[in-house]
Amino acid sequence: MLPAMPPPIRIAPSLLSADFGRLADEVRAAEAAGADWIHVDVMDGRFVPNLTVGPLVVEAVRKVTRLPIDAHLMIVEPERYVEPFARAGADLISVHAEVSPHLHRTLQAIRAAGARPAVALDPSTGPEAVEWVLGDCEMVLVMTVNPGFGGQRYIEACTEKVRRLRAMADARGLALEIEVDGGIRPDTAGAVAAAGANVLVAGTAIFGAPDYRSAVAELRDAALRARG
Question: Which residue in 44, 70, 122, 181 is the catalytic one?
């Protein structure tokens, strides 16, 4: 089977690094800067050692942007919260393979709720965890830092995981979106894009920059140059 055409490069600013006191303005600024998606990190203090936001924040973000909202559920029992996040306006919902024993069923539930289903993998989880559900998900999110906090350094070993996932998708003729999240900056964007990632989540690299538009453009340019 011939490999599918690779999906376009997408830049997804992570609201984890935004100023929550000015959340609506930050979302609008990211959209104006050329972002493709808005990434929302949902943490429950159980699967990861931090607490962040719930469906009400996703609903608030939905009201101020037309961009797709990419909800990353770093929570236990994610199947219980699929419908609330979809109703709130999430366009993509990622659940972790590590806490989803009935992963196929959960992906089906996400699609039934009207969102695009995706699977997230911790740095220590191998690509084989999604081998048998690749055809049932539209994206695999590769965590390139340990989940739970922003501002961490990219884990180099994750580049090979991205490469293997892209090879698995190509072997099946799937135009799978591969997202990377953690330590993504202009100096790491090229490596992950060359390996096959097309969705780049960036928090501090965008919201910590003085000029959001330049920050988004630098990430996109680095990825496009590496892809060739």
Answer: 181
19 flagged as catalytic? no
Residue with tokens 């490469």, as numbered in its chain: 163
Residue 148 has pLDDT above 80, yes or no: no
- Virtual CA dihedral for 33, 36, 38, 39, nearest 10 degrees? -120
Q: How far apart are the first and last CA of the chain?
A: 23
Of 224, 204, 208, the C-alpha closest to 41 is 204
70 is catalytic: no
Q: Please give the model's pTM, rounded to 2 decimal places.
A: 0.96
Out of 36, 41, 70, 122, the active site residue is 41
